[in-house]
Amino acid sequence: MVERIRLIVRGVVQGVGFRPFVYGLAVRLNLAGFVSNAPEGVVIEIEGASRNLQAFEKILRQSPPQLARIHSMEREMLPPLHEKGFIIRQSRQSGKYDVLISPDVATCSDCLREMNDPADRRYKYPFVNCTNCGPRYTIICDLPYDRTRTTMAVFELCPQCRREYNDPANRRFHAEPVCCPACGPRLTLLKANGEACDTKNPVAECIDILHTGGIVAIKGLGGYHLACDASNDEAVTRLRRRKQRGAKPFAIMVRQYEQLENIVELSRISGDMLREWQGPARPIVLFPKRYPHNLSEQVAPASDSFGVMLPYTPLHHLLMEGDFQALVMTSGNLSDEPICYQDDNVVERLGALADFILSHDREIYIRTDDSVLRPVAGKLRFLRRSRGYVPHPVSLPCDTSSGEILAVGPELNNTICVTRKGEAFLSHHIGNLENTRAYEAFLQAVAHLQDVFRVSPEYVACDLHPGYLSTRFAQSLELPRIEVQHHHAHIASVLAECHRDEQVIGVAFDGLGWGTDGTLWGGEFLVADLINFERVACLEPIQQPGGDMAAHYPPRMAYAYIRKAFGAQADILASELLPSLSESERAMIDCILEQNVNSPLTSSMGRLFDAVSAVLGICVENCFHAQAPAELESIAWQAEQEDGLYPCVSRQETSLYYLPGPGILRALVDDFCSGTTAPICAARFHNTVAQATVDICIRIRENKRLDTVALSGGVFANAFLTGRLVNRLKQEGFEVLLNEQVPAGDGGIALGQAAVAARRNLCV
Ligand code: ZN
Ligand code: ZN
Ligand code: FE
Predict the structure, then answer these.
(1) Nearest to 141 by CA among 426, 447, 423
(2) Which residues of 388-400 are buried (b: 16+ CB within 10 A; e: fewer)?
(3) Which residues pair with 264 in a beta bridge?
(4) 474 C-alpha vs ligand 3 centroid, how far in Å?
(5) How many CA atoms within 13 Å lie on the side-chain side of 602?
């Protein structure tokens, strides 16, 4: 019996080879009809024997093209038209846009095979791509996804490429960025002053430069990298100096898995983690270093891990043929600026950092940094979610029918987010907004996301902090504003991801966020749901001498803690433990603390970690975000087996329980001064914080009858702490929720803001 059905397929179904797949399947099953891209997704009308139709639907659902993500499939019976043959119809362009944009995808194995085949016309062509791989998010200017709305529009297809593009049986059928050496983008090698080098083979030349210790700015998918040979100590040191980077680790690229084994320890790494690392997103993953390794110590000084990625563009693959053990591939920028991605300012921005520039004429429309993940509590979790993952949406636990939302995120590690029909689209990593270029990127992202997802938000969600540039931007919009407390947003980000619309115990540990009482929060225990929260416990507040200065110089924070913990003895102890803090600096701190000048109260867990790091002599300056806590964690891993802890009794003050920071610090100082090594002390400190946190959760459970704990905030990027805390909580019978799709740090705040705003709107 002949039947006809219409299917509307929603999800990531454009730019992923969906139509050719449908075409091939229909032809194979002897079905007639058409497939077409439409604003709401892909529309298929198909007819034939009902048995074949069933097979068609089953295969589409169960094994769609590799990169497609089907979110829903609407099905309708139609009267048969007795058509012959199956066609791919021209896209319609009106109506509302519901399709999703694919993230950028690492070069696929078919394209690699062609690139390595001397007989292929794309042999060694650095821009080979197909429907299964290549640039997407970074080159899309508008929707529907179509070559004319990408930065490939300027390259006119040659007859051969056009044939491939138009042939439904070809694997490049409607691959929008398709190109070849005859018609596509080209590489150019430039000197640092922008002058073109006279070379026929820029790749070979670039490999030579790298081999002889040169630094090259290399244009990638979402921006420029600065590259040098990771085993060349002199080159890496020079790059570090030029970038004004302090001790912040550089990411590296290795050619394949075999090289990874030589430099990192894989015993704590699961098969799932490796699969993600090798997958189409090709993120940077932080792996524990292995000793000895042959790379320069300057790649990641003072860190116990290497951030490693695999090649993800054809150009990377060609460069890695240069037989490097690894290349440093760090983002092309000066210290805190956002990554450079535009050719018209690359000389100005990177000319002083690189010796040469390897560029090309395919424009990057949206800059996107590499994503960074690290193994925490048994899974890879995001430190930065950007290239390869953005703009896949996170679905919210509630709909947004009461009005779409723009969430503008925090100040540091900013990302933003727009909602559309119950889904949240987070932007690429934008950075620290007080940097002018980052703020410009923020404004661009706000406009672009609304544009490509065709949403006009009716509400704006922002942080409570009155000084954040994102908050001020939100205030400048003529939209109803929903302010979400920072730590509530952290917890809401976990609830949103886990689709939980209920009350939980939320533990939010981070550097700082503006509290509802006007003090700086950061070690918070909330009883929270998506609508509201109650603060029930926190780290014992302490004055932060000199505000941000103390966050930058951990010994200052350490001194404040020592004063509070030891009173009269503080001066002697500080002179021993904090040699970098002079007597006059101590006197100055005494003075501002006593007079309460610029010394806000803080319950920040990040500051306690800073203080401990300084006391143990590990880190005296935070040159990059959370450097002192990260180095403290590194040291703790040296005593991985240590399970001792310090006595610690949380006490109740008014309506709040206090996790006693000064008390923990006091015990730690006593331990350290009696000769215990820094690694043991660091491990015991972590263990103590974990246990004290569990104790408070148990008390909250007794009072509030809640046994689910959500953990979020930048401190939970600490794998030593998080692993132990999760285990202890589970032993006590708690269910534990953690971030998986967005970072626990401030990169996830926009999601939390959007979720709270959406949920609150439903109550109005
Ligand atoms: Zn491909
Ligand atoms: Zn061509
Ligand atoms: Fe935070």
Answers:
(1) 447
(2) bbbbbbbebbbeb
(3) 289
(4) 19
(5) 28
> What separation in Å is there between the alpha carbon of 513 and the centre of ligand 3?
6
Average pLDDT along the chain, 764 residues, taken 10 residues at a time: 93 83 92 89 93 94 88 92 88 64 93 98 97 94 86 97 90 92 97 95 98 98 97 97 89 96 93 96 96 94 94 98 97 86 93 97 96 97 97 93 96 96 95 94 96 93 96 97 98 97 97 95 98 97 94 96 96 95 95 95 97 95 91 96 92 87 98 98 98 97 97 98 98 98 98 97 85
Amino acid at position 150, single letter: T
Which ligand minimizes its atom distance to the CA of 604?
A: 3
Q: Are 47 and 135 in contact (CB under 8 A)?
A: no
Which residues touch 32 (CB under 8 Å, ≥6 apart)? 26, 46, 47, 48, 83, 84, 85, 86
Question: Residue 187 Cα, ligand 2 centroid: separation in angstroms?
Answer: 15
CA of 102 to the centre of ligand 1 (A): 14
Q: How far apart are CA 412 and CA 466, in angstroms?
A: 14
Ligand in closest contact with the CA of 410: 3
The ligand that comes nearest to the alpha carbon of residue 739 is 3
Ligand nearest to the CA of 121: 2
pTM summary value: 0.94
Query: Which ligand is the nearest neighbour of the Cα of 162?
Result: 2
Ligand number nearest CA of 160 is 2
Instruction: Compute the distance from residue 163 Cα to the ligand 2 centre, in Å.
Output: 9
